[in-house]
């Protein structure tokens, strides 16, 4: 049996719709999914007890999907089953996103669970190399894409974000813990020109079983409002939710979508 630890966003619902049998949907308190209902909610202070409940339910596989907030740990609520995990959990909360996920995945695996990636469950969430839109990137866009890939690589070293926006060879925004939507919204309020692109890719060397970058139709709208010409994704490395709607939105907005091979 598989359990889905679901966070915010549309990814949990997309996965559930693709599975032949509904998984056990779980959520961390404070990061409940907004698109599906969780059958089991847990606090991080009782994570050890939560894992015991999963074993009792004969869960053998776990998939992490959706965004979660970093919780504040209340020491008074830590139970006996979780106490041995506290040092690892504290380090995870203090680490960057990739470091935190590696720590959590390590706990799950040491507890006997197989951790499955979202794209293992639904391979069609990833798109292969190509440009499926009517609009094609121009020569300036190709230069910007190469520049953006280099910026994304530099961000990886600091375990910061998975996206940036580049215009005329200059970084005009980088993704932080506030996410891509916030980054694009911040650009939309700045009257400093049109053009450029949004670039998204996994961090270099990240564990791809969780937190792959994701876009959906709302990302296209955000990029359009920010005045960007298009969106560039690392081919095979970014989850595309409702891909037909994403392509249609790009075509409607006169934007390109480019699935670009890694450099």
What do you see in this structure?
With 263 residues, the chain is α/β, with parallel strands linked by helices. It folds into two domains: 2-121, Rossmann fold (3-Layer(aba) Sandwich); 126-260, 3-Layer(aba) Sandwich (Cytidine Deaminase, domain 2). Helix content is 35%, strand content 19%. The protein has helices spanning 11-18, 47-56, 86-94, 97-110, 118-121, 139-157, 180-188, 217-225, 243-253; strands at residues 2-6, 24-28, 40-42, 61-65, 114-116, 163-167, 170-174, 197-200, 214-215, 230-234, 239-240, 256-260. The strands form three sheets. A five-stranded parallel sheet has the order 3-2-1-4-5, with helices on both faces. A five-stranded mixed sheet has the order 7-6-8-10-12, with helices on both faces. Strands 9-11 form a two-stranded parallel ribbon. Strand 1 (2-6), helix 1 (11-18) and strand 2 (24-28) form a beta-alpha-beta unit. Helix 3 (86-94) packs antiparallel against helix 4, helix 7 (180-188) packs parallel to helix 8 (217-225) and helix 8 runs parallel beside helix 9 (243-253). The two termini are 38 Å apart.
Question: Can you lay out the helices and strands and say which pair or pack?
Answer:
Layout: E1 2-6, H1 11-18, E2 24-28, E3 40-42, H2 47-56, E4 61-65, H3 86-94, H4 97-110, E5 114-116, H5 118-121, H6 139-157, E6 163-167, E7 170-174, H7 180-188, E8 197-200, E9 214-215, H8 217-225, E10 230-234, E11 239-240, H9 243-253, E12 256-260
Parallel strand pairs: 1-2, 1-4, 2-3, 4-5, 8-10, 9-11, 10-12
Antiparallel strand pairs: 6-7, 6-8
């Amino acid at each position: 049996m598989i359990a889905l630890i679901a966070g915010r966003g549309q990814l949990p619902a997309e996965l559930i719709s693709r599975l032949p049998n509904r998984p056990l949907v779980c959520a961390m308190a404070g990061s409940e999914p907004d698109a599906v209902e969780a059958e089991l909610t847990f606090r991080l202070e009782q994570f050890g007890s939560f894992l015991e409940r999963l074993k009792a339910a004969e869960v053998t596989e776990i998939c992490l999907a959706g965004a979660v907030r970093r919780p504040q740990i209340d020491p008074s609520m830590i139970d006996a089953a979780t106490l041995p995990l506290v040092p690892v959990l504290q380090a995870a909360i203090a680490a960057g996103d990739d470091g935190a996920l590696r720590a959590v995945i390590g706990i799950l695996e040491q507890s006997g669970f197989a951790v499955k990636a979202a794209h293992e469950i639904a391979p069609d969430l990833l798109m292969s190399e190509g440009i499926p839109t009517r609009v094609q990137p121009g020569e300036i866009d190709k230069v910007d894409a190469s520049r953006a890939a280099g910026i994304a690589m530099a961000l990886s070293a600091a375990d910061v974000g998975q996206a940036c926006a580049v215009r005329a060879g200059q970084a005009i925004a980088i993704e932080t813990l506030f996410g891509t939507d916030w980054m694009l919204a911040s650009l939309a309020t700045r009257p400093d020109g049109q053009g450029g692109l949004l670039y998204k890719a996994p961090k270099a060397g990240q564990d791809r079983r969780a937190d792959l970058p994701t876009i959906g139709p709302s990302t296209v709208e955000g990029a359009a409002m920010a005045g960007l010409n298009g969106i560039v994704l690392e081919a095979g490395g970014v989850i595309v939710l409702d891909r037909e709607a994403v392509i249609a939105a790009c075509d409607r907005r006169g934007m390109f979508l480019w699935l670009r091979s890694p450099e």
